Amino acid sequence: MFNGLADRLAKVFDKLAGRGVISEAVMDETAREIKIALLEADVALPVVKDFIASVKEKAVGAEVMRSIQPSQMVVKIVHDELVRVLGESQALNFIPNKQNVLLMVGLQGSGKTTSSAKIALKLKKEGRKVLLASLDVYRPAAREQLQEMATKYELDCLPIVADEKVLDITKRALNEAKLGLYDVLVLDTAGRLHIDDEMMQEIVAVRNLSQPQETLLVVDSLMGQDAVNVAREFKEKVGITGTVLTRVDGDARGGAALSMRMITGVPIQFLGVGEKADALEAFDAKRVADRILGMGDVVGLVETAMEKVNQEDIQAQAMKMMSGQFDMNDLLKQLEQVDKLGDIKGVMKMIPGISKFAKQIDQANIDNHLIKRQAAIILSMTPKERKNPEVIKASRKIRIAAGAGVKVEDVNRLLKQYEQMADAMKKIKKMGPLGMMSMMKRMGNMFGGSGMNGGGFPPFGN
Question: Among 119, 323, 394, 444, which residue's CB has the most CB atoms within a 10 Å radius?
Answer without folding.
Answer: 119
